[in-house]
Amino acid sequence: MDLEKIAKELEGMQTLETISDMLKLKKTTCLNIISKLKKRGYLRRTGGGKQKRIYIISPRVLSHGKGMFDILNRYSKEKIIPPFIHVAHSRYSIEEAIVDLVVLNDIRININLLRLFNHVKDWNKLYLLSKIKRVCRNVGLLYDIARQATKTKTMPNNIYSRFLKSKFALKYKSESTSFKELSKKWRLKAPFNRKDLD
Amino acid sequence: MIGIEDQESLLKLISRYLEQDVICWAFGGNAMMFYGYKKSTKDIDLVFESEEDREAFIKAIKLLGYEKQSPLRIYPEEKLADKNRPLMFSKGNERFDLFVKKIFRTELSEDMKKRFYARHDFAEKKSLIVYVLSKEDIILLKSITEREKDFDDILTICTTEKAISWNIIISEAISQHKKGDKWVLYDMEETMSKLKKYIFLKKEYFERIYEHVN
Questions:
Q1: Which one of A25, A78, A179, B83 is at 20 to 30 Å from B94 when CA atoms are compared?
Q2: Are the Cβ atoms of A90 and B122 closer than 8 angstroms?
């Protein structure tokens, strides 16, 4: 079976039904082919569970691993089209994803990453990574906004105060006048308006 | 020769031997593999932002058995006299060509950094972050390196990829020329003239180059 040829034929987004139609094969046979394409790196899948499973197929080998945008899209309500491909070939945690996403300084990404704070496991790690990338107060401000906007885990007080005292902050490309109290507290203007969260 | 999966495993292994975090930019056959244009490559071309990063990387690959190799007969002679020539390390059939800030006289510009296509993180003991340059910048830099198979690689990109912005390539070449790279426009013109036999290239692209050469 020439998997590259099949991947070329099926290039793009497909469902099990469209693959079955295009290859004129039974669905069970197609599932077998899907599994082989995935193993060779020609296929990635999205959805599953209640959502319809969609297969992204390319004759070029798609890199393995997950990246910051996979993590973001897994937890956020709106799905973001990544501005670039990011693949982490080794361990890559939510904490690393939050910090890397904040550094991108993109309004839509900032709004969507709020939900990630509910999945943070190691707050100390989040602080240390933020310090390395010099975005401590940005992360702190977004955490406080997340607390107001969505269900969010509580950060331990000692780490919260380290975020608050930090001298490191990245100036946002877009600045809003919303969240006045939080802006004053964090000495940093919010990157989006309260309305943007609706 | 090294394939995509082996390359990823190798970079992961290197990150295990690094003594500090390293950031680099891929632009050769290895970058083409990340795009999926190629299945294997002989040379892994990387450009680092600092000498310190390159040294850390070299230390790690030496521990893995890579040995310094002479760039003679691989790059054209006139390019080898340049102070920004690469340090080369090889083991068996694989070779690393390691540059710092500049690929000969062409610098890794801020625009090139902004245009990158992908970011690959290899984090074991320390992290190795490899940014893959855009296809336009790969074409430009492969025109400069002028090795045996570089033109074939450019041709592969041009025939596989429909949307190549030649305006970006030429603007970058002109910008590099203005910064003092006297070769870049000649190298680019030579590549484009060869490419003309295989793909359609607008006359205005050549005219933009000639305008700045004269």
A1: B83
A2: yes
